[in-house]
């Protein structure tokens, strides 16, 4: 049986919260606890990506609730003289399932290019983590009509070859939609996601099963429309992932 998007077996949508550099220990635990208690009321997979210093307490609170844990970034090495960095093996050791790589804030603030992002995604696989590889155009690139070209080039440069629906997640996050309250139209999201799916066909054996997340100003109020777009298999949520009610509201609005 195949779904309208062509999945051999439709994966559940994934709603992942990128807490970025927010929260403190107690508020992290309170939020994680609310999600752990309510995960049974949603029909999607949930994941949270807290700041690395709070992974451990959040992991304890999540326990065996089924809410998955992820890192926000990782180094490529397993260990060594890399002051301030965290290896994918360390994330796995704390119970992480996922790690975000290539977020636009890291591409912009830390000069990470596609090759660096791909190396991180490969390192994540070495540690058994599922990389959430982020791509997305800037406003100037979209205005110049280059959104599809930019995203294609990022996918080809950042996604390692040979991954599958079980070992890769890709997040489309238009830079101009992050934290701005602005979102692309459903048609624009559909066009980019269909294009990413097509490009992944050259890189992955089962591109149809790779979950493609949309990220950028996803809120409970717009989640239903955005999450209903063809080839959208979930969301990477920033601001609205910091409140249990909003994050769960997005999860509940996701088909
Ligand atoms: O960058 C994002 C998630 O990684 C999106 O952030 P916002 O949901 O705050 O726009």
From TrEMBL:
One BP annotation, GO: glycerol catabolic process
Family matches, as Gene3D superfamilies: Aldolase class I
Catalytic activity annotation: L-erythrulose 1-phosphate = D-erythrulose 4-phosphate; D-glyceraldehyde 3-phosphate = dihydroxyacetone phosphate
Gene Ontology cellular-component annotations: cytosol
Signal peptide stretch: none
Binding site for substrate: 18-20, 179, 217, 238-239
EC number: 5.3.1.1
One Pfam family per UniProt: TIM
Positions of transmembrane segments: none
Residues annotated as the enzyme's active site: 103, 173
Locations listed in the record: Cytoplasm
Highest taxon of source: Bacteria
InterPro entries with a match to the protein in the record: Aldolase_TIM (IPR013785), TIM_sf (IPR035990), TrioseP_Isoase_bac/euk (IPR022896), Triosephosphate_isomerase (IPR000652), Triosephosphate_isomerase_AS (IPR020861)
Molecular function terms, GO-annotated: triose-phosphate isomerase activity
Keyword Ribonucleoprotein: no
CDD domains registered for this protein in UniProt: TIM (cd00311)
Coiled-coil spans in chain: none
Pathway(s) the chain acts in: Carbohydrate metabolism; erythritol degradation; Carbohydrate biosynthesis; gluconeogenesis; Carbohydrate degradation; glycolysis; D-glyceraldehyde 3-phosphate from glycerone phosphate: step 1/1
Main location: cytoplasm
Function: Involved in the gluconeogenesis. Catalyzes stereospecifically the conversion of dihydroxyacetone phosphate (DHAP) to D-glyceraldehyde-3-phosphate (G3P).
Family that this chain belongs to: Belongs to the triosephosphate isomerase family.
Quaternary structure annotation from Swiss-Prot or TrEMBL: Homodimer.
Protein name, as recorded: Triosephosphate isomerase
Organism field: Thalassobaculum litoreum DSM 18839
High-level lineage: Bacteria, Pseudomonadati, Pseudomonadota, Alphaproteobacteria, Rhodospirillales
């Amino acid at each position: 049986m195949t779904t309208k998007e062509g999945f051999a077996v439709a994966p559940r949508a994934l709603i992942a919260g990128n807490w970025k550099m927010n929260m403190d220990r107690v508020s992290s635990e309170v939020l994680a606890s609310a999600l752990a208690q309510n995960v049974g009321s949603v029909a999607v997979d949930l994941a949270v990506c807290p700041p690395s210093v709070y992974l451990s307490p959040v992991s304890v609170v999540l326990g065996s609730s089924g809410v998955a844990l992820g890192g926000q970034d990782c180094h490529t090495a397993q260990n060594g003289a890399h002051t301030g960095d965290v290896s994918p093996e360390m994330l796995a050791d704390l119970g992480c399932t996922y790690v975000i790589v290539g977020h636009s804030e890291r591409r912009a603030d830390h000069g990470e290019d596609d090759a660096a992002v791909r190396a991180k995604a490969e390192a994540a696989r070495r540690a058994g983590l599922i990389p959430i590889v982020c791509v997305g155009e800037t406003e100037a690139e979209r205005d110049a009509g280059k959104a599809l070209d930019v995203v294609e080039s990022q996918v080809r440069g950042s996604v390692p070859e040979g991954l599958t629906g079980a070992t890769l997640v890709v997040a489309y996050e238009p830079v101009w939609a992050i934290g701005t309250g602005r979102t692309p139209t459903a048609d624009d999201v559909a066009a980019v996601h269909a294009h990413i799916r097509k490009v992944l066909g050259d890189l992955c054996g089962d591109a149809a099963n790779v979950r493609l997340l949309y990220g950028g100003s996803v809120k409970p109020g717009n989640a239903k429309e955005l999450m209903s777009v063809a080839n959208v298999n979930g969301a990477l949520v920033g601001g609205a992932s910091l409140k249990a009610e909003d994050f769960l509201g997005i999860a509940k609005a996701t088909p």
